[in-house]
Structure formats: C-alpha cells, structure tokens
C-alpha cells in the first residue's frame, strides 16, 4: 500500500515519488511502458556499480496495481531548492553542479545504451523534413565518439545535497554512454526550458572553463540534442526545441 499523499516528494506526468521511512517509492502511471520501467531500474543498478553516488536500488515491484521502483531515501535538499532558497549563492551552487556533472563524465559503463544510437533513433522520429533529418544524422555521425557516462537529464532538481553536504544524483532513466558535451548541451537547454537564460549561460561558461572545453564545440551539439529531445514533452516544448534546429552552417 502507498503512503498517504502527505508523503509525496515529487509529482511528474505519469509518475509520483513518495517517501516511506528510509525509502522512496517511485510509482508509475498505468500506461507507462513496463520495458521503460525495468530499463530505468537496470540503469540505476549499473550506475551503482560505477561508484557514482546515487540512492541505492532496493526493489522493483507492484504497488496498488502499478509498477514501482523502491530506492534508498537520501535526507537533504535538491540544488534546485537550495538555489531558490538562497539566490545570493546561486553561482556557488552552479559551480558545485558543474563539478558533480564533470565527475559523472569521468566514469564509464560499457553496458549502457550508446548516446549516438539513441539520438539517431530520436532524430528519425522528429517532426522535421527529410533533408533536415539527413543533415542532423550526418552531423551526429561526424561528432567525436566517446564512452563517458552521460546522465541525459542533468538538472538541479536531480541533484540532492545530503545533510552532510554530499551530492547524490537521482533519475537515471535517460542515462547513456557517449560524448560529455552532448550531455552539457542537454542541460543548457533544460535551463532554457525552465526560463532561466541567465542560469543557462552561467552554467555553460562555468563548464567550459572548468573542463577546458570550447563553447563552440558544445554549441555544435545544440541542434542535434534539441532535435532528439523534441519527440517528447508537450507541444510548447517541442516548438521551442525545434527552434534550435538550424543546420545551415553544416559543412
């Protein structure tokens, strides 16, 4: 049986997260694909083996007739919450956010889906004309092939700062192995989708400086990532993401 509604930690379309003592219970909607739920649990288990800090997976089960993933509960606050509570410390929190992401990118996990394979599938599904899709596929294939762990949805709401200051990363449903700059482009676009353009630019500047990555290199990933992400979300998000798809400068 589920905890009562007062124990809800987070609500998203098609999923609700509850606290149950020292565990969290992520309950999926009845129409959520079973394969996607099992894949998320498998991703979480594989990332545990890399040494990256995340809540430990405890079980995959049925709760009140719905699939659920049960994980360790980490007492603390998300970076998103801390930024809202202490806006004067936002840059400090963004520095930490970038450091955590760079640490993720230092790991490898050969069992994960390849980022390029996933992006190629998504671009094929995007609502774009055949010429634009072809150009995007071609650009993607020309990008350097890496095997770094890429979170895929790295957002301040997915980093929990525990009571002792240790960062834990949650929500590994979109993790892949591939080029870190594609992961950074995704995070940059997430800031934009949240309406935080200043935060987006500060984040990207910090990442490029700390990792010694050219901003132009990350920007080359923007149209590819935007197109691959446009196949999910609501219509407003799709329109925004597709506005980033510009392959005129492709050569």
What does this structure look like?
46% of the residues lie in helices and 19% in strands. The chain is built from 9 helices and 10 strands. The protein has helices at residues 34-50, 79-85, 90-105, 115-125, 130-142, 180-193, 197-211, 215-229, 235-242; strands at residues 8-12, 15-20, 23-28, 57-63, 66-72, 76-78, 148-150, 159-162, 167-169, 176-178. The strands form 3 sheets. It has a 5-stranded antiparallel sheet, covered by helices on one side. Helix 4 crosses helix 8 (215-229), helix 5 (130-142) crosses helix 8 and helix 6 (180-193) runs antiparallel to helix 7 (197-211).
Distance between the termini: 57 Å
Helix content: 40-55%
Q: Rough shape?
A: globular
Described by its quaternary structure, the protein is: single chain
Specify the number of helices: 9
State the strand order across the main sheet.
1-2-3-5-4
Largest sheet: 5 strands, antiparallel
- Give the overall pLDDT as a whole number: 94
Main structural class: alpha+beta
Count all strands and give the number.
10
Unreliable stretches: none
Which band does the percent of strand residues land in?
15-25%
Order of helices and strands: EEEHEEEHHHHEEEEHHHH
Q: Any idea what the radius of gyration is?
A: 18 Å
Main attributes of the structure:
single chain, alpha+beta, 9 helices, 251 residues, 5-stranded antiparallel β-sheet, 3-stranded antiparallel β-sheet, 46% helix
List the helices and strands and how they pair.
Layout lengths: L7 E5 L2 E6 L2 E6 L5 H17 L6 E7 L2 E7 L3 E3 H7 L4 H16 L9 H11 L4 H13 L5 E3 L8 E4 L4 E3 L6 E3 L1 H14 L3 H15 L3 H15 L5 H8 L9
Helix pairs in contact: 3-7, 4-5, 4-8, 5-8, 6-7, 6-8
């Amino acid at each position: 049986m589920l905890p009562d509604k007062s124990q809800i930690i987070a609500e998203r379309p098609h999923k609700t997260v509850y606290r149950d003592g020292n565990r969290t219970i992520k309950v999926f909607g009845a129409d959520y694909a079973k394969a996607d739920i099992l894949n998320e649990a498998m991703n979480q288990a594989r990332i545990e083996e890399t040494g990256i800090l995340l809540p430990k997976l405890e079980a995959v089960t049925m709760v009140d007739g719905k699939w659920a993933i049960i994980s360790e509960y980490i007492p603390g606050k998300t970076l998103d919450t801390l930024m809202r509570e202490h806006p004067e410390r936002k840059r400090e929190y963004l520095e930490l956010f970038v450091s955590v992401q760079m640490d993720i990118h230092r790991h490898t996990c050969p069992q994960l889906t390849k980022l390029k394979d996933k992006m190629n599938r998504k671009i094929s599904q995007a609502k774009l004309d055949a010429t634009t899709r072809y150009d995007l596929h071609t650009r993607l294939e020309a990008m350097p092939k890496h095997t770094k762990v890429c979170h895929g949805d790295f957002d301040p709401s997915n980093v929990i700062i525990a009571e002792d200051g240790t960062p834990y990363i949650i929500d590994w449903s979109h993790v892949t192995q591939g080029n870190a700059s594609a992961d950074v482009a995704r995070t940059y676009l997430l800031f934009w989708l949240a309406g935080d353009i200043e935060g987006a630019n500060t984040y990207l500047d910090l990442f490029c400086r700390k990792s010694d990555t050219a901003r132009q290199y990350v920007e080359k990933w923007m149209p590819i990532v935007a197109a691959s992400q446009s196949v999910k979300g609501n219509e407003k998000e799709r329109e925004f993401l597709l506005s980033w798809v510009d392959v005129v400068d492709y050569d």
